[in-house]
Write a structure and sequence with these properties.
Strand content: 35-45%
Number of helices: 3
Distance between the termini: 15 Å
Oligomer: single chain
Order of helices and strands: HEEEHEEEEEH
Radius of gyration: 17 Å
Helix content: 10-25%
Strand order of the largest sheet: 1-2-3-4-5-6-7-8
Length: 173
Amino acid sequence: MQGCRILLLTSFLFIVLPDAASQGISQQPPAYCGETMRYRLKYGIFSIGSATILMTEDSTGAGVLIRAEAQSDGLMKIFRNMHYYLVSCMDPVTALPIFSSCSLRDGRNNMSNELVFDHCSRPDSTIVYSRISGKQTVSKNIYDILTGFYHFRLYHIPEHPVTGEEVVIRTFH
């Protein structure tokens, strides 16, 4: 599935850095609930899609919900009809994912998965339960795509960004 490759390539744009606590950064994230970000996706002068990211409080009180939806539009929709829908529930104190789900549709190809993150059971690693790949043991303080995006935005976009600076954030997708 080409759509999965594009999404996976996007996930590898995040690079690995020490977690925020080891950098002396406060673990209390600011309140972004109710915030909506809208993006136009372009290839050169051509509009190929749109994306929306919305942050809200989880109605159960478990955390902060981050919802992202991206889809092709315009002429791109004729050649490649893609629709991605991602949801993450983020712990409001640590900004780490609790739960994540994705639904990807690329033409006739469909893929969906759900992940549950266990950051507490093991002191040296995180356990991720995936509907597709089962139980995985991964490095501590790992993010999913949306909480990784939030982490990058929160801790790595300074007032005066340095051109060419690389930021690495570990993600599991």
